[in-house]
Specification:
This protein is α/β, with parallel strands linked by helices and 235 residues long. Helices cover 21% and strands 34% of the residues. The chain contains five helices and twelve strands. Bound molecules: flavin-adenine dinucleotide (FAD). The site of flavin-adenine dinucleotide has 21 residues, from strand 4, strand 5 and helix 1. Flavin-adenine dinucleotide binds next to strand 4, strand 5 and helix 1.
Amino acid sequence: MYVKVILRERIKRAPTVESFRFAVEEKISFLPGQFCQVIFDEKNPSDKELNKFLSLSSSPTKDYLEVTKRLSESRFSQKLDSLKPKDEVLLKIPLGTCIFKDEYKRVIFLIGGIGITPVASIIEYIMDKNLDTDVTLVYSNGREEEIAFKKELDAWQKINKNLKVFYTVTELAPKDKTILYSRINKDVLSKNVCDVPACVNFIFGPPKMVEAMENLCLELGCCKDNVKTEKFIGY
Ligand SMILES: Cc1cc2nc3c(=O)[nH]c(=O)nc-3n(C[C@H](O)[C@H](O)[C@H](O)COP(=O)(O)OP(=O)(O)OC[C@H]3O[C@@H](n4cnc5c(N)ncnc54)[C@H](O)[C@@H]3O)c2cc1C
C-alpha cells in the first residue's frame, strides 16, 4: 500500500548515517525485517534514482515509522537530507520476506555496515515484546566511529541478558579494545558464537557482504533454510 507520512524528527546514528522518523495517521502493519520504498518522484514510480528501498529501522510495536540511510551525494540522499519536520513523504510499505518470527528461539545476525537497519527493528521488537529469544549480533564496519546504533545496541545489551553484540572493524585498529579488529570470519565466529548451524542466521547488507556471509554459514554446516538473506542492492 501507499501511505503519506510526516517527518517527526531526524536522529544522527553515525557521522554519515541518519534516521528519519515519521508520524503516521493510522498504525501501519509490517513485520520485523521488512523494508519500504521511499518515493520522491511520485509521477514516475520506475525512477530508480529518486525512489529507493530502505529497511524499517523501528519496531512494528512503535507508533511511528523510521528509516535510516547512509547519506551520500546522490539526488535521493539530497532529497532525504533536505527534509524538515512536518514535511510529507510517500512510502510504499510493507515489502520483503526476510522477516523475524516470534517462534525463532536462537538467532544470529551477521551484519556489515548499513545492514544494521532491519536488525535495529528486530531487536527493538524482541525487547518490546519481552521475547526470550537468544540473540547474537556480529556487526562489522570499516572504522569504529562508523558504527551506527552503537549507543542503542549497548543500552539494549545491558537490559537484555539474552542479547550479545560483537563489534568488528576492518580498516583501522580500534581504540576501544572491546571491538575486534577483523573481518567476520570462521575464527571470529568459532571464538565468540556457539553452534551456528543450530540457529537461524540473518544476513542483511551490501550484496558482496551478504554472499560472503552466506558462504561462511554454509561452510560452517548451516542448512539453507536456516540462512535468511536480504541484499541491499545499490551498494
Ligand atoms: C531491500 C533493501 C533494503 C535497503 N535498506 C537500506 C537501508 O536501510 N539503508 C540504506 O542506506 N540503504 C538501504 N538500501 C540501499 C538503498 O536502496 C540505496 O540503493 C543505497 O542507499 C544507495 O543509495 P544512494 O542514493 O546513496 O546511491 P548512490 O550514492 O547513487 O550509489 C551508491 C553506489 O551504488 C551504485 N548504485 C546505485 N544504485 C544502484 C542500483 N540500483 N544497482 C546497482 N548499483 C547501484 C552507485 O553507482 C554507487 O556506486 C536497501 C536496498 C534494498 C534493496
